[in-house]
Amino acid sequence: MSIKNKVSFTMTRTSCSWKHCSYFRLCLTVRHGFPYQPTCLAFDPVQKILAIGSRTGGIRILGRPGVDCYSQHESGAAVLQLQFLINEGALVTACADDTLHLWNLRQRRPAILHSLKFNRERITFCHIPFQSKWLYVGTERGNTHIVNIESFVLSGYVIMWNKAIELATKAHPGPVVHLSDSPKDECKLLIGFESGTVVQWDLRAKKVDFRIYYDEAIHSVSWHHEGNQFMCSHSDGSLTMWNLRNTARPIQITYPHGKILKEGRKESCKPILKVEYKTSRNSNEPYVIFSGGLSYDKAGGRRPTLTIMHGKAITVLEMDHPIVEFLVLCDTPYCNKIQDPYAVVLLLEKDFIMVDLTQSNFPIFETPYPMDIHESPVTCTAYFAECPPDIIPVLYSVGAKQKKTGYSHKEWPVSGGTWTLVSGFLTLQMLYKLKTSKVFENPNAGEGRAVEQVEEDPYAIQMVRWCPQSRLFCVVGISAHVILYRFSKHDHHTTFPLWIIHLISSNLIHIPTPPRCPVAPATDHKTASTTASESLLVKSRPVRMPPGYQAELVMQLQWVDREPPQQITMTLGSLCNGLVVVDYIQKTILMCVSTLDLYGAADPYQRLTRSPRKNRQSTSGRGTRPISLSRVLSPSPSSSLCLSVSLCLCVSCKAESRENSFSFSRSSSVSSIGRDTKEAVTTLQFGESYGRKGDSVPTACLWVGTSLGVVLLLPISIPTEKERLEEPVTMGPSGTVLMLKGSVLSFSFLDCGGTLIQSPYEVWREPNVPEDPDEPRRRKLVNLSPLSSQEACGDGHLAVVCSEKQAKVILMPTQAVLFTHNVTESSFLLRADVVSVCNSVCLACFCANGHVMTLSLPSLRLLMDTNYFPLTDMRIARTFVFTNGGQALYLSSPTEIQRIAYSQEMTDNLQDMLGELFTPIETPEAQNQGFLKGFFGGNAQTFDREELFGEAAAGKASRSLAQHIPGPMGLENVRAAAGGVVGDLARARIALEQRGERLGELEERTTLMMKSAETFSTHAHQVRLSQPARDCVMEKHGEMKRGCEVILPLCLCSICSLQVMLKHKDKKWYQL
């Protein structure tokens, strides 16, 4: 990850056990980084999870490290306020489009259950009492509405603003800025209006208990836990304390940071936007925490501050960014209990901080989330999958020494959710940071360095290349400098070797030097600076380099004739380009030619080379000429090339910028007049290949792609290992020319079986260890290429070349085109990489029209074409990158990284990889207060809100006031979100008890029936034995027999009647 003058190594864990899959599917996975443009904050004190809303409609829900979830409102409206249903697994969001949304958090991907759209009023404030299913909603008109959480419909109970204020008051009180129920009595609702009016409304009596008027506007209100007094913050920087016994005037007015001047007037202060009034069990003094309120006249008044007042002690914490919102975390969710605050969460515009209140010096907690990737603007990204297993612990151990000290020793308070090993595959952890600015001297004003010539920061990073196996790292800066780093576990004192490359205008002509260009010594820095004082100055004194990546070589393109050097970049569509190939081991320039000179006699357009004088272009003002660097430091292509690892620089002068638009023509068929100047080197790749058609053995080659779709091969001759330091490396054009449509983007190599050929690399060895003269160290080379065997060499290999318009698979050395696919006609590709997915390889492409495509290899059959999103800014185009395992990432905002998956199996298993946001936790029980305290009014009074707000009592609200929009989820999920865990357990327990009672009653009735049947059977048997001859009439029950009929008198009971019917089955019977 490249960040301005810093390079940050981050670790991503990704599942790599892939089975065979036949198709692809694109989906979002996770988002990392700080929420862009945050607006609000909420915390669940029981579940211990945190929610952050943003101006773009996004919601980030954070729990313990590894639990990180991102959701987005489809409307994209800004989130104004967040309210957790504490320990209920639900979240209410209020958006700028005056819509309330109920989110279900009991699933790994939160979803909207209900939405309520207000049509005639704008939402300004919301409040949900603890363990209540009714939501209070304040509006801009000053009215207060009540919403049922379960059904998400409005109640007919409305508190109108004209009923809340006095009838004699003609002025409108303004929007509702505060709503809260009294800790002393839940039937009392405190309503704060922006104008300075505060009203306590009796919900049951539907009348006002008291009204408070203040001259200054109110921003927030905070209750004392006993419910006898509350505190307000105002726009003039004052805090007022009000007691319910006397509401005529405040009992205390304080200006925490204001003073009374000699003239008697008050010092002007900033508004206090929010205040929190909390009590502590361990101290008699309460905590008063607020933001703002500093004097305008103070020198530090311009910086945002958080003030913590505890007794007579006042602590002011200065912030680097404006405070968006802060929350005080307490042990109990009950507002009528002693709060015992233990931390303060501060949401800043560009940072996230948590302060420990339990220690007197108020240290901050170390944030476990990667919230600082935007510490400086991100300029490029690189994504490496399947890294060596030893590189991550090494980077972590070195990066741990860079961490700041003074953090709180307590655990991170946001510990909600569940994290598993599978869900850890999608986490992001900061490992190591590297500052490239430490290589250069600090720029001093007035020394002549033309800072205005560079539009961006002079240390801004344009590109990074990393070899995890050899631990070599290369950084390219916007000031036309290249720094080569090598990893070491030990610190080292050394000077930075400087190599100055002189270019004259557009022609890459360096000042004649011996075959081995010596490194500029420390004493030559001043001499070099006299010829080009505008460039960055490399430190000439010995510098201690800590363990980690240490600079081994610095290369600069110098200013000539007061002209800025051509920048090194990968930007396409540039002019006046050339190629510089550097052997950094021998410190020599192998090649320094213009693009036209690369063709030699094989120029397909038969252009004539121009003289440097004609091609020379002058620059003035702020004009700079970005960019182009090869695929630098890709591990060398052969065992012999591993000893050189040559460095290639593509230098270009950019004529028009692509930062703002992609609308210009990308056609490769340009006129012959424009071909002379409109060809740029766009990509480079070292590889072991065949430089000419007649070659039978592969050699080291440099593949060069240009903006006109031309592919050139430059064979490289590298000496053997013993002669590597003495004999020079030679290279030159081979005359081979291949053509594609559009600018060439990438090269990759496959063997004849379709397997990706991995680049060879050198095994890392500690560079700062003294060598043993008896056993000199030798470089251990690892070549994974199948071409190293003679069997594979006889079959050749496949070269996959992709341009902005077209992809081709070429058989080497015959250079026959086996497969061709026109990727797009109406647009052009921005990124194309050969990646491993599902135990095979494919070509992944990202198009400028927002399409993500995958092509099979080597057949180039279209596997997936998904319209992901339209490209709206250059940030996505610059940072989008594919990697192995069916994943990709890009910078979705200046502060956030979005990861996506394009594999079907990855998408299917994504649900198991995400962490759980909700965990079943028993709600803490409220502590019982003493009899005397409850008798004298200290205990909170409870009431049934259903009796007041239900449809039976309050009726229905007007349909035109708000529109209910059901979510995509069913009734079962609605009930699950509306009812808490404790409620579910209680309902289940009650249902089980009722079922047991019914089963017991059924068993008792069955026993009684059995006893009754036995008694009847015994009695009937006795009657029959006592009167065996009487068949006509049964005297006991009056049975009468007449012919073939049987008459049953009404005196027979049902059992006796049934016995008679069974006895005379063959006869008719009647009931009298």
Automatic annotation (TrEMBL):
Record flagged with keyword Kinase: no
GO molecular function (one): myosin II binding
Record-annotated V-SNARE coiled-coil homology domain positions: 970-1030
Annotated WD repeat ranges: 211-252
SUPFAM superfamilies: SNARE fusion complex, WD40 repeat-like
Gene3D superfamilies (UniProt xref): 1.20.5.110, YVTN repeat-like/Quinoprotein amine dehydrogenase
Its membrane topology: Peripheral membrane protein
Keywords attached to this entry: Cell membrane, Coiled coil, Cytoplasm, Exocytosis, Membrane, Protein transport, Repeat, Transport, WD repeat
Pfam families noted in UniProt: LLGL, WD40
Protein family according to the UniProt entry: Belongs to the WD repeat L(2)GL family.
The protein's name in its UniProt record: Syntaxin-binding protein 5-like
Tree of life domain: Eukaryota
Compartment annotation: Cell membrane; Cytoplasm
GO cellular component: plasma membrane; SNARE complex
GO biological process entries: exocytosis; Golgi to plasma membrane transport; protein transport
Entries under PANTHER family matching the protein: LETHAL 2 GIANT LARVAE PROTEIN, SYNTAXIN-BINDING PROTEIN 5-LIKE
Source organism of the structure: Oncorhynchus mykiss
Chain positions covered by the region annotation Disordered: 609-632
